[in-house]
Amino acid sequence: MRLTAFISLVALLPACAPHRLAAQSAYTVEEIKLPRGVAPEIGGLAFNSQGELVVVTRRSGILIGTPAADPAAFRWRVFSDQSLHEPLGVLVESDHQLLVPQFPELTRISDTDGDGVADWYETVGSAWGLSGNYHESVTGPVPDGAGGWFLAIGTASHNGPTFAHTRGEFSATGRRGRNFSAVPWRGWVMQLKPDGSLIPYASGFRANNGVCVGPDGGLWVTDNQGDYVPTSPLHRVEHGRFYGHPSSLVWDAEFMRDNPRRDPLKEGLERLEARRTKPVVQFPHGIMMNSPAQPVFDTTGGKFGPFAGQMFVPDESGPRILRVMLEQVGGEWQGACTFLLRDQALRSGNNRLCFSPDGKSLYTGQTMRGWGGPAEGLQRITYTGQAPFEVREMHLTPEGFELTFTEEPERSAAADPARYRVQHYHYPYSHQYGAPQSEITPVKVTGVAVRDDGRKVHLTLGELKAGRIYQLDIIGLATEAGRWLGNPMLAYTVNRLAK
Amino acid sequence: MKSRIVTLLQLAAALAGLAPDGFTASRKSAPRPARVDIAVVPGTLRYATTRFDAAAGQRLELTLTNTCIMPHNLVLTAPGKADTVFEQAMALPDGLSRNYVPVSAVVLAATRVLNPGESATLTLTVPGQPGEYPYLCTFPGHGAVMRGVMRVRPPGGRLEDPVVEAFTQATVADALRDSGATSFPMGTRRRPLVLRSFVPDPGLGDDVFPNHDRASAPLVYDPATGTDRSERTVPPARAVPGGVAVSFGPEFAYVWDTTECRLLYAWTNGFLNLTPYWGAGAGGKRAGFAYAPLLEGTLVFKAAGGAPLRTGAQPVKPRFRGYRMLGGNPHFHYELGPTRVREQIIPSDPGTFMLCYHLEHPPETVRLVFDPSLRPLVSCDTGRWSGDVLEFTGRDRAHFMLLVRFRPGEIHPPAARTAAKPK
User: Fold this and answer.
1) What is the mean pLDDT of chain B?
2) How far is B417 from chain A (nearest CA, A)?
3) What pLDDT is recorded for position A7?
4) Element holding A245 (H helix, E strand)
5) Quick check: bond before A279 cis, omega within 30?
6) Residue A252: what are its φ and ψ, rounded to 5°?
7) How many percent of chain B have pLDDT more than 70?
8) What is residue B25's predicted lDDT score, i.e. its pLDDT?
9) Which of A163, A371, A469 would you mutate first to test chain B, the one with the most B CBs within 10 A?
């Protein structure tokens, strides 16, 4: 029987469940229970030098746990039984001292008398505005390399009020807008010096619920789809830059200098577009990522699987953790995202990630209560040692993309252009709340070359454009032994073409 | 030959397809249609069923259940026409309103776009011409890969089992519901509970908040039209952003403000109802706009006028430095210029509480300037009164304690404690 091209496409689709399970058995997911009475709404996670897990909950205090192989056998002790004001992070300074950001301040929480319980709650910094709006998150801190820290100060939401009395100057201009910046520094990343002074570092954020410093010292922040944010982005934050959401500009001295009544909302889309720095990676909304939280780099040197050096980003709105493959092309940061884990017994609400000291486990702290339906808890993801079959790297080339697999795919399939479906699209920047995928355009794969070692595949595309997200769907690729590709969908944000 | 995983449902569908009833329909009762159920592998662009067989001419009920996180549809097309329909769907000018289904002679049947969790059933007569009829999802971005095929067999021909990919769709339960967490926290006298949050404003005067700014409700701006609308933003809510609430149990609780660095109010017979902010039961929804916690109990003290402690002729903007826990009690640290203050509030003999002050680097004279309404409530073993002003000099100015009598005020009865409704 003659097969049409479509039928051969169907025949390529994986039909065998046991092989799919093999692709998914690289990681196990376990539930870690917190003591009764504790709301398991995880704001911060970190390990101290004793190998204990520090768990900062949003309203039930700070617990410190001794991990065990049996997830039900963790031993917990209470470091603080105080109900803090939305603590959304933690930086361990010592076994007796934590830095914890709350809505109103960055607090150094210390056990100074050695009884194991915190007794000194020191205000390290608080010079930003606090209007009473439920959406005004403060996340971080991450070290700035100069004895201070970076903090991400989120905007307020029109789904809540401000209070009649605000801490910090109230700007009626900044109050307007769907997400708004009515009091100082909302929508900014700020640099907090050890003496408590606050330096404006970068602006243009909406719901910047996740900061991390990479191995090269770069500062990374995610933001959430919303007004002026067409799809959720990953930004590399640099001093003095503006990242797109206009409300924060009301606190920019340079922007406001000549006209104290200048309104960023009336600036006009063209001027805002010219001013903004585009995201490094744009996460396809609804397809891969709905609400990114705190990124983390895999610094385990291979203990957590074959993705050493890459970035993981948790999704607060779904049972997903993404993997991001970053690179610089012509000096510009960009790269591809795919799934590290989706479903597979993972809860939604993924907010904070933290590797165990031995590198084999990744803890994920979950919370969404008050921002969406509750998805609260703590899980531990552990590498089983069985390497998954995945695209480990995706690089942009002058002709298309170079894929590097974790192991050799079956040779004839890997060389078949019909296995690689490519399309590009973009998310237009505007005042609107999010944007649909626009101008979805199929792209012809004009050539496939498998390199001698069998693990690299070069795709030649009919068209390559900057300013587009290229989605690659790999169909029915397996290893010689019959293990299917675990995550066949990848999306590469092309900011700059490769020469 | 690759083995296939068959769900019970698919097996039943295949068996129904094998039944002879579909081919020898009696005039008395219509033959039961064959049933095919197609799900979506969550988080992917794949139908769980990528191939099923149907007998030419039979009645078929095809149900698409969207078990995925994204919207999907299912469009059944004539043989070889999947790419054509894919392109036609992409070209639709207002695709969403048409469910991305083109009006086309080669579209045989189509569902609307289904949101996650929704189902739709197509009832159709299987075409009489045997062959391979593709189906695909025409939602933007999906059609290139999200496809399957209906193989139409001649009547009486063998119908093979459908090709189905198994998946787990178990949603991991939220761990908050059974956590035993409460939205009615409470401390004890021996171990007071310190809670930092947005706190209620039980009717404090504006002159209590000189170091705050005043919010307003400006006109809403419409960026789509570039003009101001005629309506205003939501009016500011009466609550306090930077409070520390301390509960000693039912006998006493207070709120201290970290921007004004002063005691705002105290009450007995309860603490705070946090269900507006944290949700009912163990936790859940925030109460829309009115999410400030609710005070429960009887007010016994409300601040009035400016903060009493003065280190000079004019009030100085305080700088909050944090608090130290001693004996379970918070001691608030703040600075008034060069003067460092430690302040503590503790319940005392029935009907009173104590305000204790320690000062480092105080000026020559330290004053407490009380609002006339509060003066009668305050007594002190040291210092010298002059009208509503209590003055300390010498060694007394570094450490003094005030005894404050309760003045019973508004009663805020506790809300009914209902557990969160089970889902």
Assistant:
1) 90
2) 17
3) 39
4) none
5) no
6) -85, 110
7) 91
8) 37
9) A163
